[in-house]
Amino acid sequence: MSRINYHHLYYFWRVACAENLTQVAKDIHLSQSAISAQLKQFQHNLGVDLFERQGRKLVLTGEGRKVLDYANQIFAKGEELEQLIAQGFAPTGQHVSIGVLNNLSRNFVESFILPLLEDAETTFSLHTSTMPNLLNGLENYQYNVILTNHNVEVGLQEPMWRSELLSRQAIAVVSSSKPPRRRSFPDSYRNAHWVLPSKNSEVRSAFTVLCAKHQYHPSIKAETDDMAMLRLLARDSGAYSVLPEVVVRDEIAQGTLHVHQSLPDAYEHFYAVTLASKAIPENVQNLIEKVRTQR
Predict the structure, then answer these.
(1) What per-residue confidence (pLDDT) applies to 199?
(2) Above pLDDT 90, what percent of the chain?
(3) Domain layout of the chain by residue ranges
(4) Would you give the DSSP letter of residue 280?
(5) Same fold? 6-86, 94-166+271-292
């Protein structure tokens, strides 16, 4: 006889995701004692403890986290089946759910999704959030892929994530003023004011290293972790900024911003991150390959 009772698995899944038995009991219209009894029976059948209580909170054990991983996949497939049945098993297109780091260049994101816009058979959704929320959503199968400028594999012996380099963009000095014929760093910027990315960004780190190398101390007027705001500040403040050209592509084309020079050996890297334990869907892999071939 099977040790997996899928009613029990469903109750476990709901409680594990919510981390609150009371709320789950209210949502599915069962008593707390009934759900608790079902969970005890489920753990007995499996022969492992899936939860441990910390105060009033149920916390997953190591075995519980592994069971949750499978439960996420099982019920995600169940939802796909329900959608297929509702549509009468007619041929349908595919959907791609993409998580985006909240300060990532919108121009880069647009270049990534362009093939989807041109594909009549595929729909997609974009969700912006912080890196911890994106990784949590990827782990829980809310996203097929997330886009970021951080390599999340660094330092992990058994990585949970698969991080693929999509693009490397040179970092440039830009401003609203037209550049003279020749520019050299830092001599051309002795009296300059700067609007810069925040200190925790890869772009800012590259600029800081360059300044230290030349013993240059920039006069910083403003800094922000919002790339859209940085574009506006660079355009409207009259100050200099450092950005990958892809971020200000539209402003450069319109003549509201101008590239003064590229910084030597300074780049921003863009990554596609997927779950290492799950095969990459074909449509997502196709997207990744299309962007990588453009490097």
Answers:
(1) 87
(2) 27
(3) 6-86, 94-166+271-292, 168-267
(4) P
(5) no
Q: Which residues have C-beta within 8 Å of that of residue 225, sequence separation ≥ 6? A: 103, 197, 198, 200, 201
Long-range contacts of 65-68 (CB under 8 A, 24+ apart): 67/9, 67/12, 67/16, 68/12, 68/13, 68/16, 68/17
Give one DSSP letter per residue of 163-215, joined into a string: EEEEEEEEEEEEESSPP-S---TTGGGTT-EEEEE-TTSHHHHHHHHHHHHTT
Domain topology for 6-86: Arc Repressor Mutant, subunit A (1.10.10)
DSSP string, 123-139: EEEEEEE-HHHHHHHHH
What's the DSSP call for residue 281? P
Helix or strand run (H / E) with residue 247: none
Q: For the whole model, what pTM was predicted?
A: 0.64
Tokens of residue 63, six digits:
């075995």
Question: For the domain with range 168-267, which CATH number is right: 1.10.10.10, 3.30.230.70, 1.10.730.10, 3.40.190.290?
Answer: 3.40.190.290
Residue 107 has pLDDT above 90, yes or no: no
- What tens digit of pLDDT does each residue of 29-78 get? 888 898 889 999 999 888 899 988 887 778 899 898 889 888 888 887 77
Residue with tokens 């693009």: 167
